[in-house]
Write a structure and sequence with these properties.
Number of strands: 18
Strand content: 15-25%
Number of helices: 16
Radius of gyration: 25 Å
CATH topology of the largest domain: TIM Barrel
CATH architecture of the largest domain: Alpha-Beta Barrel
InterPro entries: Beta_hexosaminidase_sua/sub, GH, Glyco_hydro_20_cat, Hex-like_dom2, HEX_eukaryotic_N
Helix content: 25-40%
Distance between the termini: 49 Å
Protein name: Beta-hexosaminidase
Enzyme class: hydrolase
Structural class: alpha/beta
Organism: Trichoplax adhaerens
Family: Belongs to the glycosyl hydrolase 20 family.
Number of domains: 2
CATH class of the largest domain: Alpha Beta
Strand order of the largest sheet: 11-10-9-18-17-16-15-14
């Protein structure tokens, strides 16, 4: 990242406070400030390091009152400097008398290297502005992965240059798409905030929106052996299927810089495969009997072979390993089910020596009255029976919000600051578990890091207030006319 970009990001991160200046208190009991803090020195050892799973996000931050107020931030990589700048912003406190910051020294680093947020833009289209605003919120909460569930059964808004008919016939309307320029904007906007973009194309199920490619989906048959006009999962028995997939994912590798792609693999409905006579014959020829999970294994094996061929690593939903598909040792398994126990699943997957991320506890599209964020806060990705070596294979977790009842009108306030509870769990020490202590901290974060920055973030407590409440900009009405 060029130095000019770093300067711009510093400006963005401190835009709430920089114009005012902050007075330094030498300790928490001091009443009078000792002077104005006007300088923050930033030292980054390596500004050229790429953003990857193993990027170094550690930093040290010190604020001194004597001999004159000054602050120092040191990070090994740019990504650590971004986290330190966010922490610096959060240290500034506002009162009716002005802005203050305590003299302090911090050495900080994340507990987990994968701290993700998943958005679903297929069931309801999410506008580009809302996606970008959510990336802002992620950076304020030190999330570092945007898992983009970009297509599903319902729609295919991703504009492919290799197969343009996918979005032409699979999107809700020609306006409900993400063009190559849109996608590139999201990737660059995310990277400038230390966030990786991992795109998901879920197959062989959840693939109805791929129907514009001839012979790609499986024709379903009625009980009398006649095609019923419906189509099921991707057809796994045709060589052309894998040619299409290879061409498509070669494009994905060119357009998304991250070394990982999410391949999905969950909730494959076998009924259409079971009805298709060509697939029945294929099953017999390959000795699969009536075990259609073996056909899924056949498909997934071919798919991951393609990934290895083109040089992409991959994340999969837990269903793939549950169905005994042999995967590459570098595979990351996303545990999402709550039944059977996610703790048992974590133990099983890590015993296979596979890296895993947890999202079972953190489906934020499920809402409950009251302080449901406490449940998210109490969930720990390493809380399962296993060796320390197994627990080290849990590389993080992900807060997910599925789009059946979420679109651009309600995404931000439903997700934030509930997701802040997840971010603290994934960043902070495992010893930080006190929910009562977290409440005022997250409530303060809501007011000063989210609402004050213009984000719609819902209350997390039964009663509270913010000094600067969120307000709607009524740009379509003249208040004098009301």
């Amino acid at each position: 990242m060029a130095s000019i970009q770093i300067i711009i990001l510093i400006t963005l991160l401190c835009q709430r406070w920089c114009d005012a200046g902050a007075a330094v208190n030498p300790n928490q009991d001091a009443i009078k400030a000792v002077g104005n803090l006007t300088k923050l020195f930033v030292q980054i050892d390596d500004v050229s390091a790429n953003l990857t799973l193993n990027s170094d996000e550690s930093y040290s931050l010190s604020i001194h009152a004597h001999p004159q107020p000054v602050a120092f931030l040191h990070a090994k990589q740019t990504w650590g400097a971004l986290r330190g700048l966010e922490s610096f912003s959060q240290l500034i406190d506002a009162t009716y008398d002005g802005f203050f910051i305590q003299e302090t020294k911090i050495v900080d680093y994340p507990r987990f290297k994968y701290r993700g947020v998943m958005l679903d833009s297929a069931r309801h289209y999410l506008t580009l502005d809302v996606i970008l605003q959510n990336l802002d919120a992620m950076s304020y909460n030190k999330f570092n992965v945007f898992h983009w569930h970009i297509v599903d059964d319902q729609s295919f808004p991703f504009v492919s240059l290799t197969y343009p008919q996918l979005s032409q016939h699979g999107s809700y309307t020609p306006r409900h798409v993400y063009t190559p320029d849109d996608v590139q904007m999201v990737i660059e906007y995310a990277r400038d905030r230390g966030i990786r973009v991992i795109v998901e194309f879920d197959t062989p199920g959840h693939s109805s929106s791929w129907r514009s490619i001839p012979n790609f989906l499986t024709p379903c048959y009625s009980k009398n052996g006649v095609p019923n006009g419906q189509f099921g999962p991707i057809n796994p028995i045709l060589n052309s299927t894998y040619t299409i997939l290879e061409d498509f994912f070669r494009e994905i590798k060119k357009r998304f810089p991250d070394q990982y792609v999410h391949l999905g693999g969950d909730e494959v409905n076998f009924s259409c495969w079971q009805s298709n006579p060509d697939i029945q014959n294929f099953m017999t020829q390959h000795g699969f009997g009536d075990h259609y999970e073996l056909l899924e294994q056949y498909y997934e094996h071919n798919l991951v072979t393609i990934m290895e061929k083109i040089g992409l690593r991959y994340i999969i939903w837990q269903d793939v390993v549950d169905n005994n598909v042999k995967v590459d040792p570098n595979t990351v398994v996303q545990v999402w089910k709550t039944s059977p126990s996610y703790k048992a699943e974590l133990a099983k997957v890590t015993k296979m020596n596979l890296q895993t991320i947890l999202s079972s506890c953190w489906y934020l599209n499920y809402i409950g009255y009251g302080r449901d964020w406490e449940r998210f806060y109490r969930c720990d990705p390493q809380d399962f029976k296993g060796t320390q070596q197994q627990k080290n294979l849990v590389i993080g977790g992900e807060a997910c919000i599925w789009g059946e009842y979420v679109d651009s009108t309600n995404l931000m306030e439903r997700f934030w600051p509930r997701a802040s509870a997840v971010s603290e769990r994934l960043w902070s020490s495992a010893k930080v578990t006190n929910v009562d202590a977290a409440l005022p901290r997250i409530d303060h974060h809501r007011c000063y890091q989210l609402i004050r920055r213009g984000l719609r973030a819902q209350p997390i407590n039964g009663y509270s207030f913010c000094q600067a409440e969120y307000n709607v900009v009524m740009n379509h009405l003249d208040r004098d006319e009301l």
